Amino acid sequence: MGFPNNRITNRTGGSQLITGTSQINGDFVSIDSLDNATKFEVLTGNGTGIANVTSGSAIAIPAGVTIDGNFTAIKLHAGSVIAYRK
Fold first, then answer.
1. Are 78 and 22 in contact (CB under 8 A)?
2. Under DSSP, is residue 61 helix (H, G, I), strand (E, B) or coil?
3. FRET label pair with 85: which of 9, 26, 30, 36, CA 20 to 30 Å apart?
C-alpha cells in the first residue's frame, strides 16, 4: 500500500518557470528544483531554514527535489525552479 499522491491534485492553478532573480508573488503549493545550485533569497511561506539574504549562506537545493508547502513569494539567488500554483 502506498501513500496517496496529493501533490498532483494540489497543483491545479498551473505552473511557472522561474529562472531569474526577480521576486515572484502568488499562491504556490510546491516548488521543483531544476538545477543543482538552486538557492533562494526569499521564500515566504511555511518553509523555514532554506532561504537567506546572502547567497553564500543559503542552502543549495539539488535538482529533482520538491518542496511542498504554502508559499507567497519566491526570489532566487541562483538556479531555476518550477513553482506550482494552488
1. no
2. strand
3. 36
Please, are residues 46 and 81 in contact by the beta-carbon 8 Å criterion? no
Residues 19-66: tens digit of each pLDDT: 999 999 999 999 999 999 899 888 888 765 666 666 667 788 999 999
Sign for the CA dihedral angle at 24, 58, 67, 82 comes to positive
- How far is Cα 9 from Cα 57, in angstroms, rounded to an integer? 34
Bridge pairing between strands 15-18 and 24-33 = unpaired
Query: Contact 41/75 with Cβ under 8 angstroms?
Result: yes
Question: E-strand spans in 1-86?
Answer: 15-18, 24-33, 39-45, 66-78, 81-85
Output the nine-digit C-alpha cell for 74: 519566491
